[in-house]
Amino acid sequence: MAKFKIIVTDECIGCGQCVNVCDNYELGSDGYSHPKVEEVDEKGCNEAAADICPVSAIKIEEIDGAKK
Question: Residue 65: what pLDDT?
Answer without folding.
Answer: 53
